Model the fold of this input.
Amino acid sequence: MHLEPWQFALGIVAAILIGLAKTGIPGTGILMVPIMAQVFGGRLSVGATLPLLIFADIFAVAYYHQHAKLDKLRQLGPWVLLGIVLGTVFLKVLGDSHTSKDLLNPVIGIIVLVMLGVSLARTRMGDKLAPHSRVGTWGTGAIAGFTTMVSNAAGPVMAIYFTSMGLTKYQFMGMSAWYFFIFNLTKVPFLVWLTLDNPAEPLITVETLKFDLLMAPVVVIGALLGRYLLPRFSQKAFDLTVLVLAAAAAIRLIFS
Done:
């Protein structure tokens, strides 16, 4: 596929946001989801975004790995994997529907709006929204796995889970770094299988991989900028801007 200049420009913005989200300003991650969907369409955006996320995850792990409490992830892991499997089935069903429209566009738009609602609820309700039971943990893991597989948009769910642990800012970054690095890598074989199973509706193409190579240096810029901003940044005004822009982009995806 050939990207128009405006699509390429949006891709650069998304790559910077990915780097920022992984090393300094987690809230920016939700905005890159509808932006990438605008560039590639919903289905291709899932596969086009994943290599950039993994690349940025490497920086995040390198910066913050020593702050993580990995034992806390073990109880969540099987349920995240279950959610990833369910998301894979969902993507296969949509891909096999053979419609002229990209059915994942409105799905991603709805997921982004729901995640924005979760983010707003988190700011108002705080720890009351966190899963305190074993069943709540299982459900959180499954929802996070499904949303990350279908739209790369599990950030707000995991933010609630990690916040409920009473982590410091740097512990939060370390836990997030390891979590997303592990499970983003886990998603790769599922996306490859879906593409090979239905080449007419791919999730990864040569063109998306070329785009990822071009955007890799931009992700580095975003990651370095995030590392610089983390100890200096007050997030309230920026988070509000991100929420508004992400909501507008999500609504556009739903009704486009």
